Amino acid sequence: MSSEPLYISMRKYLLEIIERNKNTPDFKLPSENQLALRFNASRISAKNAILTLEKDGLVYRKQGKGTFIASKASELELLNKEKQNPMIYFIVPGVGGNFISKIQEGIQSFAFEHHLYLGILVTGGNPQTEEEMIRVATQGNCKGLIIYPTDNNVYNKEILKLSLNNFPVVLVDRYLTGLDLSYVACDHFTAAYNSTKYLLSRGHTHIGFISQDPQLVSSVQDRSRGYQSALLDVTGNFDSKLQLICDHTAPDFFSSFSKYLEANPNLSALITTSAGYGMKLAPYLQHIGLQIPKDLTLMLFDNEFENYLHLLSFKPLIIDQNPFEIGRKAGELLYRLLYKNPKPKKILLPETIIE
Fold first, then answer.
1. Which residues, 6 or more positions from 265, have their beta carbon under 8 angstroms from its beta carbon?
2. Quick check: 80 pLDDT over 70?
3. The model's pTM
4. N or C: which end of the chain has fewer CB within 10 A?
5. CA of 95: how far to CAs of 41, 111, 148, 270, 304, in Å?
6. Spatial distance between the Cα atoms of 318 and 306, rounded to a whole number of angstroms
7. What confidence tens digit (pLDDT) does each residue in 104-163 have?
8. Residue 209: how many CB atoms within 10 A of its CB?
9. What Rg value do the Cα atoms of the chain yield, rounded?
10. How far apart are CA 303 and CA 262, in angstroms?
11. What is the mean pLDDT of residues 88-94?
């Protein structure tokens, strides 16, 4: 379990100083640098802590002089008020990839603006750990959860309890069949449908699709259906040989993919469904002498090459799910469940194709 976010610890520290000195006009608070040094943190965290206090009208800043206690502070019971700020958690399989990191950034952005304390709990993609993390959160002071479910479509008993008890929960990216829970994601079916039509409109007639088992993950299942539907609607035909089910982490991945290429000699475009495929396929395709996009157009869900596209000798097409906006919307929806309307709601966002 992660510790309390640093900017929140800094905020509490500053509030204690303000509480002790709120009746002293224009009392000067520690600088961003002093805060960062005290908490062994970045200046960004220190700046965020001060900005939350400035937004509340408790402090004001003078350019080049520092941060000072505002007169409003003397009118408030600051520490008692602070205890009322709700704690929420984002429960997630991992925090290493761009896609999940940007969802987290979106949630953090909303939480920061609305004074929600945010904790991150990592499950490692393990359903048992996911159960444990839900128990850890709900047995504490947690008021709501945003959950990125593990890959298995069979939900655990703790999520079932949350649903039965009407606990404020928002799922991101994946829904769990049979549970009436709020959900925010890219419209996976439409994203795959539009992307397949995009390739067809550019003259590709043999379009491949590679993914893990669609039965295990709702998002992959929806993308698989979108891909097949686009081919059927536009060409009137779907060739099952063009669809390869093989997890990119499998030991026999390259062997399976090699056989797939042999079975589809006319393949001109390939859609991959999640981060990891592109990282493995790009160097392999180049190794066997196929050039991207001259010989094979590679279209990737999740922009796994985002940070170093400028360094690549090839250019894949990207199906961008707009993960930051997914995170923002998840925060908004959880806030709605907490304070406005407890009825579950589903939000599907459009994709963006990046050429």
1. none
2. no
3. 0.75
4. C
5. 19, 18, 11, 27, 14
6. 9
7. 999 999 998 888 889 999 999 888 999 999 998 888 778 899 999 987 666 788 888 888
8. 24
9. 24
10. 28
11. 92
Higher pLDDT, 257 or 154: 257
Output the CA–CA distances (angstroms, integers) from residue 44 to 13, 47, 281, in the order listed.
16, 5, 37
| Burial tier of 159 (Cβ tally within 10 Å: 0-12, 13-18, 19+) | buried
Q: Is 286 exposed, middle or buried (0-12, 13-18, 19+ CB in 10 A)?
A: middle
For the chain, what's the residue count? Answer: 355
Q: Which residue has the tokens 């170093």?
A: 308
| Angle CA 110–319–91, to nearest 5 | 40
Asked if 95 contacts 110 with a C-beta cutoff of 8 angstroms, the reply is no
Exposed/middle/buried for 268, CB within 10 Å: 0-12, 13-18, 19+? middle
Place of tokens 């393990």: 126
C-alpha–C-alpha distance, residues 160 and 163, integer Å: 5
CA pseudo-torsion sign 307, 308, 310, 312: negative
Could you tell me the two tokens for 91?
Answer: 């429960």
Three-state SS string over the chain comes to CCCCCHHHHHHHHHHHHHHHHCCCCCCECCCHHHHHHHHCCCHHHHHHHHHHHHHCCCEEEECCCEEEECHHHHHCCHHHHHCCCCEEEEEECCCCCHHHHHHHHHHHHHHHHCCCEEEEEECCCCHHHHHHHHHHHHCCCEEEEEECCCCCCCCCHHHHHHHHCCCCEEEECCCCCCCCCEEEEECHHHHHHHHHHHHHHCCCCCEEEEECCCCCCHHHHHHHHHHHHHHHHHHCCCCHHHEEECCCCCCCHHHHHHHHHHHCCCCCEEEECCCCHHHHHHHHHHHCCCCCCCCCEEEEECCCCHHHHHHCCCCCEEEECCHHHHHHHHHHHHHHHHHCCCCCCEEEECCEEEC
pLDDT digits (tens, 9 = 90+) for 273-300: 887 888 888 889 888 998 888 899 999 9
Q: How far apart are CA 215 and CA 51, in angstroms?
A: 46
Sign of the C-alpha dihedral computed for residues 284, 287, 290 and 293 taken in this order: positive
Question: What is the bridge-based pairing of β-strands 182-186 and 87-92?
Answer: unpaired
Whole-number pLDDT of residue 315: 82
pLDDT beyond 60 at 1: no
